[in-house]
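User: For my dataset I need records formatted as: sequence, then structure tokens, nothing else. Please produce one.
Assistant:
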Amino acid sequence: MNHHTLREIAKVGVGLVIADILCGLWLSTSSLLPVTILGVSWSADAIGPAIVFDIALILLLAHYAWNMRLPISSPSERTLLRLAGAVFLIVALAHLARIMFDANIILGGFAIPFWLSWVGVLVTAYLSYASFHFAAMRRR
């Protein structure tokens, strides 16, 4: 997959995460909570951390989609990509460790399902690979 396609996917991702924030805000102001969606119970306590995570994800995706020029020529952007790759790798390994050791995680009063860790391993491992790959690209 080339970097132009990844940029377009990141732009779509920004839109989806914004929609997720709007849904979270709507749920927090409605009388529908607590609600169970795909086996995950959402309460009013879980909406705040979810929105903070979504904002961080929007910032990262927006940087990939609109601000990064490939191949990277700036040492500071290479360092940023290596740092992002390292963070994604640590998160992927944490998800994998959770799966291997059958650890239950409870955030905001609800248990995180194991299928979410499988998705977390796949997504964060790919983002780590892409970050390191783009940081290593040189101008030809």
